[in-house]
Design goal:
- The chain is about 90% helix and about 0% strand.
- α2 packs antiparallel against α3.
- The model has no long low-confidence stretch (mean pLDDT about 90).
């Protein structure tokens, strides 16, 4: 009886620690891509196309590398939303269309915020 209680408490501790680590990781990733959306919005609003292209390419490559392991922690469709937003921004930069870029930046911001809010430790997510 005592060993089962010890095993149960140990497993509970492991689950709690993994949950807290998951929250921390997703919050950092979410904040990184919310900041990326803001940076890209400023660059495309100023029509600094070469720098915007370099920046979005760097963020997109980092996102692809992150997504390989992140999909174990988050919903697959949440990752796809960020990928689609980055692709929309890239297309807007290639076409040099500010409106398309701004729309993509808004989508990126929303999708990136959603990554963390879905995993946040809130009553709605627990229930």
């Amino acid at each position: 009886m005592r060993s089962r209680l010890t095993i149960s408490l140990t497993l509970l501790a492991v689950v709690i620690v993994c949950g807290v680590m998951n929250i921390y990781v997703t919050k950092n990733i979410s904040n990184r891509y919310v900041s990326a959306a803001e940076e890209l919005r400023e660059l495309t609003g100023a029509e600094d196309w070469p720098r915007a292209d370099q920046t979005v390419q760097a963020y997109h490559q980092t996102w692809k590398d992150t997504l390989q392991w992140l999909q174990m922690l988050i919903n697959h469709s949440d990752g796809d939303e960020v990928s689609r937003a980055l692709e929309r921004i890239e297309a807007g930069i290639r076409a040099q269309e500010v409106a398309t870029c701004l729309e993509g930046c808004a989508e990126l911001r929303e999708a990136a915020e959603h990554i963390y809010h879905r995993d946040a430790f809130t009553l709605g997510n627990i229930l």
